[in-house]
Amino acid sequence: MKLLGRKNDSSRKKDGEQPLNAAVAASAVDPEPGADGRERKTAPKGKPTPKRDAAKRRGPVAPAPLTAAEARRRRKELRGPKLSKEERKAEKLERRASMSERREKMMAGDDGYLLPRDKGPVRRYVRDLVDARRNVLGLFMPAALALIFVMLAVPSVEVQRLLSPAMLVLVLIMIIDGFVVGRKVNRLVDEKFPDNTESGWKLGFYAASRASQLRRMRAPRPQVERGAKVA
Questions:
Q1: Taking the CB of the first residue and of the last residue of the chain, which one, N or C, has fewer CB atoms within 10 A?
Q2: Domain locations along the chain
Q3: Tens-digit pLDDT profile for residues 168-183
Q4: Cα separation, 80 vs 85, whole angstroms
């Protein structure tokens, strides 16, 4: 019996066509090229894909250590040969000399060894402006420590009443001086670097934070003297 719209196998054979099952099997075994001209990498049914097959060929993964001693042994093997006492001492001295050299270059203002916040000609110019100025902010820490020492050493009610307003006045003076430093630095930076895109608030905060430190504790080390004219 013939179905409408279909041909039986005998008609297919007569016309020189392959049966439907044979065509499906042939397509599974011999993959056709894709749209880009490359052969498809899909494996036939019942066989692993190329990626899984490659993963199996890598070899077995080393099992996790069962004891702490085995873990230490593996770490020693990864480190390589054990160094002698003289070799360890020489390596330690070399590492310390390298760190000292990097710190010295950083303190000298070498741009390749500075922290990200200190890099660039704009930040260098700001540091020079702050270091050349006599800042009241630099007296904040010594004055605050002196007031705290007096408050603890002289527990008198009258002294406490005098020192509390003095502390508030000191903080107010520091805020005013920091604002003045920030405004001055931003004005001079705009004149020297008209293409500068850094915000004025960041530059002002950077200048005020450097001015609040003692001169000998500033990093990088000051490159200009007090009162010097910064071009």
A1: N
A2: 84-113, 116-217
A3: 998 899 999 999 999 9
A4: 15
CA atoms within 13 A on the CB side of 33: 4
According to DSSP, the residues that pair with 39 across neighbouring strands are 33
Q: Record the tokens describing residue 146, joined without a space.
A: 């002196």
Give phi and psi for 194, each to the nearest 5. Answer: -65, -20
Helix (H, G, I), strand (E, B) or coil at 38: coil
User: pTM of the predicted model, to two decimals?
Assistant: 0.60
Give phi and psi for 150, each to the nearest 5.
-65, -40
Closest C-alpha to 174, from 146, 149, 148, 140: 140
3-state secondary structure (DSSP) of residue 191: helix
What confidence tens digit (pLDDT) does each residue in 10-35 have?
Answer: 444 444 444 444 444 444 444 445 44
| CA distances to 114, 127, 163, 176 from 219, in Å | 9, 10, 32, 24
Higher pLDDT, 131 or 2: 131
Q: Name the least confident of 26-30, 57-61, 99-103.
A: 26-30
| CA angle (153 as vertex; 148, 157 as ends), nearest 5 | 85
Of 30 and 77, more confident: 77
Residue 115: both structure tokens together: 């922290």
* Strand ranges inside the chain, DSSP E: none
Rg (CA), the chain: 39
Cα distances from 151 to residues 137, 146, 155, 174, in angstroms, run 22, 9, 6, 20
Supply 71's token pair.
């873990």
Tokens of 13: 């054979």
